[in-house]
């Protein structure tokens, strides 16, 4: 079992999100655990049928389509493309088991936002979160291991377990000042909810 996961024997299957750890974390100076009472916010996006969304978006601009210029309201989009309600419920039950509080549940469809202490976040996702410093003096926190989430419900990431901003130039080679992407850029309805560099916006 994974240390820190407080309800592993509950009969629920879990997935480990290997991409949700800062790449080359060992190259930074580990300053030790984050303060257990530090407040954190986490975001848990669920997988969507990106092909169905892209197909619908293309049909909006196709004069021969019955969907031509039939724009959806946010509520209609959520009803048509959000993850199943049972998956959303499973994620929200999982997230609140160790005391994290949900917020803005009505306005975000299948996107789950929660807040609480670092200790609650660590217990919920089975991680340890440490403070780090980079060679250029940048201080940040990050999870030392990959988070654990319920299996089979389409969780694609856990945002907020780290706060290191890494900009990248897609035309350049990875290196100092141009690191590899963090693996926390998760497409949600065609938009990235992770860290973006300026060149990712146009």
Q: Tell me about the biggest sheet?
A: 3 strands, antiparallel
State the low-pLDDT regions, or none: 1-9, 181-202
User: Helix/strand/pairing class, anyone?
Assistant: alpha+beta
Number of helices, where a helix is a run of at least 4 consecutive DSSP H or I residues: 4
Share of helix among residues? 10-25%
What does the radius of gyration come to? 19 Å
Strand content: 15-25%
DSSP summary, beta strand count: 10
End-to-end Cα distance, whole Å, is 43 Å
Shape, per Cα inertia axes: elongated
What does this structure look like?
- This protein is an alpha+beta fold.
- The chain contains 4 helices and 10 strands, in the order βββαααββαβββββ.
- The strands form 4 sheets. It has a 3-stranded antiparallel β-sheet with strand order 2-6-7, with no helix packed on it. The chain has a 3-stranded antiparallel β-sheet with strand order 3-5-4.
- The longest helix is centred in the middle third of the chain and has 12 residues, at 85-96.
- The model is unreliable at 1-9 and 181-202 (pLDDT under 50).
Which keywords apply here?
single chain, 202 residues, alpha+beta, 3-stranded antiparallel beta sheet, 10 strands, 19% helix, elongated, disordered C terminus
How is this structure best summarized?
This protein has helices at residues 50-60, 74-81, 85-96, 118-125; strands at 14-16, 29-33, 39-44, 101-102, 112-117, 129-133, 139-143, 148-150, 187-188, 191-192.
């Amino acid at each position: 079992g994974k240390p820190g996961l407080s309800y592993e024997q509950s009969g629920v299957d879990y997935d480990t999100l290997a991409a949700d750890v800062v790449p080359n974390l060992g190259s930074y100076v580990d300053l030790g655990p984050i303060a257990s009472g530090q407040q954190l916010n986490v975001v848990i996006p669920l997988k969507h049928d990106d092909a169905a969304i892209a197909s619908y978006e293309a049909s909006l601009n196709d004069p021969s389509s019955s969907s031509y210029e039939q724009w959806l309201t946010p509520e209609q989009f959520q009803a048509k493309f959000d993850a199943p309600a049972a998956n959303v419920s499973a994620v929200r039950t999982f997230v609140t088991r160790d005391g994290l509080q949900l917020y803005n549940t009505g306005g975000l469809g299948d996107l789950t936002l929660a807040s609480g202490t670092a200790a609650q976040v660590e217990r919920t996702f089975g991680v340890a979160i440490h403070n780090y410093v980079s060679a250029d003096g940048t201080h940040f926190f990050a999870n030392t291991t990959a988070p654990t989430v319920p299996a089979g419900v389409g969780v694609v990431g856990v945002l907020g377990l780290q706060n290191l901003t890494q900009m990248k130039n897609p035309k350049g080679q990875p290196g100092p000042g141009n690191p590899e992407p963090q693996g926390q850029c998760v497409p949600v309805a065609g938009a990235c909810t992770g860290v973006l560099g300026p060149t990712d916006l146009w």
